[in-house]
Specification:
- The protein folds into two domains: 22-214, 3-Layer(aba) Sandwich (Rossmann fold), CATH 3.40.50.720; 218-338, Orthogonal Bundle (N-(1-d-carboxylethyl)-l-norvaline Dehydrogenase, domain 2).
- Helices cover 39% and strands 17% of the residues.
- It has helices at residues 29-41, 51-60, 103-106, 148-153, 194-203, 216-237, 241-245, 248-267, 276-284, 292-299, 305-318, 324-339, and strands spanning 22-25, 45-48, 62-66, 69-73, 76-78, 89-92, 115-118, 158-171, 174-186, 209-212.
- Strands 1, 2, 3, 4, 5, 6, 7, 8, 9 and 10 form a ten-stranded mixed β-sheet that branches.
- Helix 6 (216-237) packs across helix 10.
- The longest helix is centred in the middle third of the chain and has 22 residues, at 216-237.
- The radius of gyration is 19 Å and the shape is globular.
């Protein structure tokens, strides 16, 4: 995977970092950390949130528990997208399976020149856009049922983003930054575009590490090795990282899942390489930490099983590749979540 550095160009006026209209839709853990740091830097952004989280931000500001201490920033936060209008950059912080239901709310934010950057785990809704050669589909049903997301935004608006950060929302109005903070950002066609340069420069004001890349899918697959193993299996076993990746039999299962997923990645032209044993050792070292999917399961929240696991199973079928272990883990995790009332099949 290759990271590149591009010359930054401001889209409208030299040196005016508030000139770009930026909205973070879904300022949960990751979106909230990014929004809070940008606001602290003086960048003018808007936040779309809901419920108790929104009420707390409106009343007290957004509180960030950072590695350097706690601080509060006032924020333009609302659930009325029509009140802030068309944006230059829409950053979506929603999990993959919740985007379709929010499309109507996002419409007032989208104009002809809006860039949409979805901070998401798993295979993204724009995956086929920009790939070389003839593709077997233009969307994945388990990620974007009926292609509604792709159609609503337009594939040309998509900018890829993969984030490595540990964060959470301990209570409404508060986001906690625990570790990491690297954002890999790239065009779906791997081009070194002007807008990529502009956005990397603008978001760099946050102090988080913004890394432009001309191979965004390798970053997608690179993070997926952990997501497709630890996340579903942690729900099946209701276990922490150390209890999964440190157990030989379970580790062997994880190893085979990664091998199957890597064969799918190669079928779609990815050059992403993976040192499986090093990756498994790294995940085992997380010890008592819990995956985000297990945290959602314990909190009674709907699970992002489709984007993390089902998407790879669907890509495999389209490429006539057999992935029996991934298919089994997907079926078992989906059924466990369904029985718990935390999963419903994707629908357009």
């Amino acid at each position: 995977m290759t990271n590149v550095t591009f010359k930054a160009i401001n889209p409208r006026s030299k040196g005016d970092k508030t000139d770009m209209k930026i909205c973070v839709f879904g300022a949960g853990a990751v979106g909230g950390i990014l929004a809070g740091r940008l606001l602290k830097s003086g960048t003018n952004i808007s936040i779309i949130a809901r419920g108790a989280h929104l009420a707390a931000i409106q009343e007290k500001g957004l509180t960030v528990r950072d590695r350097d201490g706690d601080w509060v920033v006032p924020a333009t936060a609302t659930d009325d997208t029509s009140s802030i209008g068309v944006q230059d950059l829409l950053i979506i912080g929603l999990k993959a399976h919740t985007v379709t239901a929010a499309l109507n709310q996002m419409k007032p934010l989208i104009g002809p020149k809006t860039t949409v950057m979805h901070i998401v785990n798993g295979i993204p809704w724009w995956f086929f856009h920009g790939l070389d050669g003839k593709q077997p589909a233009n969307h994945l049903e388990c990620v974007d049922p009926g292609g509604r997301i792709l159609t609503s935004f337009g594939p040309e608006k998509a900018l890829g983003c993969v984030v490595h950060i540990a964060s959470n929302v301990p209570e409404p109005g508060i986001v906690e930054h625990n570790a990491g903070g690297t954002f890999f950002i790239g065009e779906p066609d791997n081009s070194e575009s002007e807008r990529l340069s502009i956005i990397v420069d603008a978001l760099g004001e946050s102090g988080l590490r913004m890394r432009p890349t001309n191979d965004i899918r390798s970053e997608v697959w690179g993070k997926l090795w952990a997501n497709i193993t630890g996340n579903p299996v942690s729900v099946l076993l209701e276990a922490r990282f150390g209890d999964m990746f440190g157990e030989p039999a379970v580790r062997d299962l994880m190893r085979n899942i990664i091998k199957e997923a890597a064969s799918v990645a190669r079928a779609y032209g990815s050059k992403a390489d993976v040192d499986i044993e090093t990756r498994l050792d790294g995940l085992a070292s997380l010890g008592k930490a819990k995956t985000s999917t297990l945290q959602d399961f314990e909190a009674g929240k709907s699970l992002e099983v489709d984007a993390l696991v089902g998407s790879v199973s669907e890509l495999a079928r389209l490429a006539d590749i057999e992935t029996p272990i991934i298919d089994l883990v997907y079926a078992l995790t989906r059924q466990k979540a369904k029985v718990a009332g935390l999963y419903s099949p994707p629908s357009s």
